[in-house]
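Example record

One chain of 203 residues, shown exactly as stored in the release files.
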Amino acid sequence: MKEEENELKLLIEKEGYYRALEFFEKVRDPIEQVNYYFESPERFFQKNGITLRVRKIENKYTLTVKIKNSFKNNIVKSYEFHKPISINSFYDAVDNPNHIYKLLNNDAFEAVLTLLGEKKELKYLGYINNKRSVLKAFNTWEIDLDCTKFPNEFITYEIEVENILNTDEFINKLNIIGITGQITDKGKYNRFLKLLNDSTFKV
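Predicted structure tokens for this chain:
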């Protein structure tokens, strides 16, 4: 299944994270996500704006190819291809990463080949833990509020808003209640890779 994603990504401080939990209405209970990442040794996927991951929620696994298309007016536009996979397929992919190519649906496989030119050797890199709360902000925007734990216990806090038309209005309202942040076009995968390369990394 292919989806288009248009998203504001805003990195915030720990205090802002807890302020948002306190201030905004809960839409649904928080969920625990684990993202497992795969990449070529030469980082061809990252260099071409591709994230290749398996996400675990409870005991369900979803294979996703996410392709960044553009960053304009504070909005990251991406295309995502999702496919549910079995737990056995997941463990097989960890042990034999190149088997992921056989798991991709046709559209995702063709999109990857178009960007990379050919199948690249894959390896399993590792995982991050993410706690996601879905909240209603200012009675208008539904937001994803994330607390992400990276390797070495490094933690980031983030607000993501999809299909938002006026980012300035939203950010100004956040500032009024004491939540400030940094707009970014870099997703969790890019932060994960940077952290692997630099143990002194700061957002």
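Notes: Residues 2-194 form a domain with the Hypothetical Protein Pfu-838710-001 fold (CATH 2.40.320.10).
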